[in-house]
């Protein structure tokens, strides 16, 4: 066990973007209409959403004079989620009038600009957007950028799933996603009571997998890299289960059937409700 370290993924955005463009340029007309595991969204809707996130990021962070004013004002996490859901729904509805080819053309421009934006940022400067699903009110740029990488990766993977394309599940692509997602463990377990010194191990199998441990210290949970043999509970799952679980790709019943607990199951069970997306 050792303290977790910052995650640096700015250099992965452009290669991941190139993979997306190559995928989209090979889709058939029928592929764009196929349903995905994102509730209510077909492939074209996810592509439109990816364009929207680029435009918002470039507009709000690249042009600091531009800000979206929430209406009504945001006073809670639920308010923030509702606000983002409205933004997403409004854009996807409007984007139905945009052709697939134009979506690709627009993404070819915005994706490169987003990559350049992230590479230009000081990773340890305060981020303009906090990682709220990890319970943070202020985040460093490296965490905000890593969170954005998980968004790009998991939405592209949803498209790949829907059209039967080759996945991007190698360690290069997926380990940074899982490592970022699991930074939300202390927040997910914040209401789980345990004596100081209690350990919960999380083991993800597969090429992109790894091991992490929550340690109860001074009444709080702290995350470490690596697993301890002295854990009161060990939680094991495949890398495929892990990313789907944390992005609403599995129901609680499906997740329970795919996650294995050793030791005190009640201590580890909160993983079944963990999300690393705003929901």
Overview of this protein structure:
It is a single chain. The protein is of the alpha+beta class. It has two domains: 2-168, Four Helix Bundle (Hemerythrin (Met), subunit A) (Up-down Bundle), CATH 1.20.120; 185-273, Nonspecific Lipid-transfer Protein, Chain A (2-Layer Sandwich), CATH 3.30.1050.10. Helices cover 46% and strands 12% of the residues. The protein contains ten helices and six strands. A six-stranded mixed β-sheet has the order 1-4-3-2-5-6. A hairpin with a 4-residue loop joins strand 2 and strand 3. Helix 1 (13-25) runs parallel beside helix 5 (141-163), helix 2 (43-62) crosses helix 3 and helix 2 packs parallel to helix 4 (100-119). The protein is globular. The mean pLDDT is 92.
Helical stretch count?
10
**What is the helical fraction, as a range of percent?**
40-55%
User: Major sheet: size, sense and barrel closure?
Assistant: 6 strands, mixed
What structural category do the secondary elements indicate?
Answer: alpha+beta
Overall tally of domains = 2
**Mass-distribution shape:** globular
Radius of gyration: 19 Å
